[in-house]
Amino acid sequence: QVHLVESGGGLVQAGGSLRLSCAASGSTSLIYAMGWYRQISGEQREVVALIRTSGTNYADSVKGRATISRDGAENTVHLQMNSLKIEDTGIYYCNVIRLGVEYWGQGTQVTVSS
Description:
The chain has about 110 residues and is an all-beta fold. The protein has no helices and 11 strands.
């Protein structure tokens, strides 16, 4: 089992920045991928950014504005988002894939105001 705890969400003005963090605990060896998804009201959950040993991937909507990083020693994944837009508002979820099993955090609310 992998337990995920997210932090860093909140209210930010459009154009601002925030940094989300997700700490993994439990069985953290052999983690294949870590990432962030978001769910915007009324829409399906969508991937924001992923990080694997092979590299990183970003949704087109955040490319150039988001940076995902992983601290392997701490089993923590971070998502730095800059130039935030109102449409970035949503619940952000941390995701981990380990041995073919997906684990999810509880979600953290990000609200971008005008």
